[in-house]
Amino acid sequence: MAKNLMEKSLKIQLPDPAPTGTQPAGAVSQKAKTAPGTLMGFMEGQSAIHQENKVLREQLKEADRVAMNFKGAIPVKNLDPRTIRRSDWANRSPASFEGAAWTEFKADIFGNGGNETPIRVRPLPEPVDGIEFEIIYGHRRHQACLELGIPVRAQIEDATDHMLFVAMELENRSRKDLSPWEQGMYYAKALDKGLYPSARKLAEAIRRDGGDVSRALLLARLPEAVVAAFDSPLDLQFRFAKDLNDAHQADPEGLLNRAKAIVAYGRRQSAVAVLAHLIGRPTSGKPRDGASDIEIGKVGKKATAILTADKKGRAILKFQVELSEEKRRALAAYAEKLLLE
């Protein structure tokens, strides 16, 4: 077979190169006498056109990229943060503007000479008490500049409520996402005000998992007393939603009583510990005879009393010491006052 291929290759006639300028690009050499020779000549002529077209295509792509970069570009302006207000759809809890993390965030803004990434605002139809704009997104950056007393870099554009809602949701995810409770309050407001007809439609609009939206809404619909039992509403987590909702459906009065007891006790606890007390069982969901114990008056390794609960959430206070009649009556009076509040 190798010998046959060699013999065939020797019979192929290649066209002589044409002098420069004698043939137009793409013309077939007149000296090509065989089919392979004709094909070679055609390909040779087409190569110049192919390279030229390739260059033109690259230039067109680059022009398109430049056009896209400038299409709809919004200039950045320095605005007085006092002329900007939060919108009705504002989704940051005041707790987001407190604590060490917030102080560090403001320090970064100040150190950079302002917010490097501009916020986005929309103009009000008419200024109200010196307020000219409303935030589309960038509440934390705006608040930081407001507290620091420096201008805020902003882009101004018109936006409908639907556009604002979606833009704020998506922008938060790319920076500091809302806590589950903040998300729930945000979504609940949109449903209550009729911005979206259902949670499913809302989830589709913001491109978020429907399960996350449902869990966030469960947290937002919890009684205020239950939310207040946590050190901060920002401590509420998606995985708490089902347990707390189940406890509320099964025994709403018991859940509220346990929540009020936690607040009255005034002891700072982890979010997981608060959940365990509220639902009357460990967060793992395994049943047991009572909730996690709260030790009272602990001295060394021994507690003076232990507050616990049975499976139904009924509170049980166990003392490790004897109480005088006077102290027992004082305790009963306090318990009566607590339960009647």
What proportion strand?
A: 5-15%
Q: What's the pLDDT, averaged over the residues?
A: 76
Proportion in helices: 40-55%
The first-level CATH class name of one domain:
Alpha Beta
Q: Can you name the CATH architecture of one domain?
A: Alpha-Beta Complex
Overall radius of gyration: 36 Å
In the CATH scheme, what's the topology name of one domain? Conserved hypothetical protein from pyrococcus furiosus pfu- 392566-001, ParB domain
CATH superfamily of one domain: Conserved hypothetical protein from pyrococcus furiosus pfu- 392566-001, ParB domain
Instruction: Tell me the number of strands.
Output: 8
Shape: elongated
H-E string: HHEEHEEHEHHHHHHHHEEEH
Major sheet description: 5 strands, mixed
Oligomer: single chain
Unreliable residue runs: 1-6, 17-32, 62-71, 282-291
C-alpha termini separation: 103 Å
Strand order of the largest sheet: 1-5-3-4-2
- Total helical segments: 13
Structural class: alpha/beta
Provide a quick synopsis of the model.
With about 350 residues, this protein is an alpha/beta fold.
Notes on the protein architecture:
- This protein is α/β, with parallel strands linked by helices.
- Helix content is 49%, strand content 12%.
- It is built from 13 helices and 8 strands.
- The chain has helices spanning 2-10, 35-70, 99-111, 139-148, 161-174, 180-192, 199-206, 210-220, 224-228, 241-250, 252-265, 271-279, 325-340, and strands at 76-79, 84-85, 119-128, 131-137, 152-156, 294-296, 305-309, 315-319.
- A 5-stranded mixed β-sheet has the order 1-5-3-4-2. A 3-stranded antiparallel β-sheet has the order 6-7-8, with no helix packed on it.
- The model is unreliable at 1-6, 17-32, 62-71 and 282-291 (pLDDT under 50).
